[in-house]
Amino acid sequence: MTGVVNLRPSAEEALASYRELVRENRAYIEAIEGQRPPGHDYWASRAASFRPGRMPVPELGPLLALAEPGDTWLDIGAGGGRFAVPLAEHVARVVAVEPSPSMREQLAEAARDAGRTNIELIDLEWPPAAEGAAPPGDVSLAANVLYAIEDPAAFVAAMERHTRRTCAVVAFDRAPNTPIPGLWRELWGSEFRELPALRELTALLLAMGRRVRVEPLPPQPLEARPVEEVARDYAWMYHVRPGIAEYEAKLARFEELVAAYCGAGEGMARPPVVRRYSSVISWPVD
């Protein structure tokens, strides 16, 4: 039969499809922005927004259901600590693995502000290149990390090697950087290449033979704010950043498009995002 979608891909097929989506997105974005220089800290301008309390964390409840008081948790790609800091209130120790200097700085400050002395920060790319670079944990968490990972199978395998009981992943139904298609087309004149997200990651884990549990969270309301404020806060997502050609003109056009596509009246607009909900995916380490 021709034109039939394979609903039961092998692990190799699922991984190849996942990898191709990541590569297509990377090539597409590099064509717009150019390649980043070596050592560039991608998160430097936005790290503060990942501090605890800066955005809702509806996933915390399902994650705490996986926790035990004496646990050590590995938070891989811990960012500014929006998961690590609240988790540290409920478990014995959190090992926060984070390669971004700006994110580590924010996390360290957030831990100090919260009085958490049971958070250990590790500067490390995942998977670790050297044996013993990261300690083992009872639970390993990767929250909103895997979208742009070219070899998620290796990433997951490293999680499992460092985990005694449970692995957990937080993922949105669409990758956080997924734009509104029409808005993107008008801004950049081409079709956006989406990254894999919840659906593709779940399919890959199932193809790899993992016994996954997927717990979806209710959609978060998108509250209206002034158009210029929304445009400023979401310009990064549409790759309107200092350094691109005609930045100021592009930013002004983006604000116009936010008003047109997301306007809520009286100079207000809702965030220009298509993601609707997140899920906690977990599986036992046998």
Compact summary:
This protein is α/β, with parallel strands linked by helices and 286 residues long. The protein contains 9 helices and 10 strands.
What is the CATH superfamily classification of the largest domain? Answer: Vaccinia Virus protein VP39
Q: Please give the domain count.
A: 2
In DSSP terms (H or I, runs of 4 or more residues), the helix count works out at: 9
How helical, in percent, are the residues?
25-40%
Kindly estimate the percentage of residues that lie in beta strands according to DSSP.
Answer: 15-25%
Largest sheet, order of strands side by side? Answer: 3-2-1-4-5-10-6
Low-confidence regions: none
N to C succession of SSEs = HHEHEHEEHEHHEEHHEEE
Largest sheet: 7 strands, mixed
Nearest-integer average pLDDT = 94
Task: For the structure shown, list the relevant keywords.
Rossmann fold, seven-stranded mixed sheet, three-stranded antiparallel sheet, 35% helix
